[in-house]
Amino acid sequence: MKKLSVLFAAVMMVVSVGTAKAQKIATLDVMGVLDAMPEKKKADADLKTFLDAKQAEIKKKADAGQAKLKQYTDEAPKKTAEENKAREAELSKLNEEINQMQDKAQKDFVAKRDTAYEPIEKKLNEIVTKVAKDKGYDYIMDANSSAFIYRAGIDATPDVKKALGL
């Protein structure tokens, strides 16, 4: 019985040492930090300007197509079947051009967004790594993640914002 008590005490010591070396985990409001960064605000404004310009270009082409459609529809009874067929083909080609412009604008936007956000994300990751090392965190998790059911640990958001000068 005495050996069992000593064994139990030894197991408890090992468990308590393991608990004392528990990993430090913190959370971070990633979107909150990103939204506070001036670089992201500028990138967002530049992307909005880019997108607005592309949409205006597409709208201009679509409006021209609508005007042609109205004109061709009004004139159709006075035209021959061949002329109407040629006009229909022209309108179909114009519609395809508009669809291609939309696809290209979307691809250009994604490429521009990725290029604009890459240095911002790199800077944030470097700061998060620095804060984690300085504060001794083993993990920093995104506080906005839906994987969290309960969160009551350390919040690293103020430390990261401070390190970024926000």
Walk me through what this model shows.
With 166 residues, the protein is mainly alpha-helical. It is built from 5 helices and 3 strands; from the N terminus they run αβαααββα. It has a single domain (22-164), classed as Protein Binding, DinI Protein, Chain A (2-Layer Sandwich). The protein has helices at 2-20, 30-36, 38-75, 81-135, 157-164; strands at residues 25-28, 139-142, 154-155. Strands 2-1-3 form a 3-stranded parallel β-sheet, covered by helices on one side. Helix 3 (38-75) runs antiparallel to helix 4 (81-135) and helix 4 (81-135) crosses helix 5. The radius of gyration is 31 Å and the shape is rod-shaped. One of its GO terms (biological process) is protein stabilization. One of its GO terms (cellular component) is cytosol. InterPro entries: Chaperone_Skp, Skp_dom_sf.
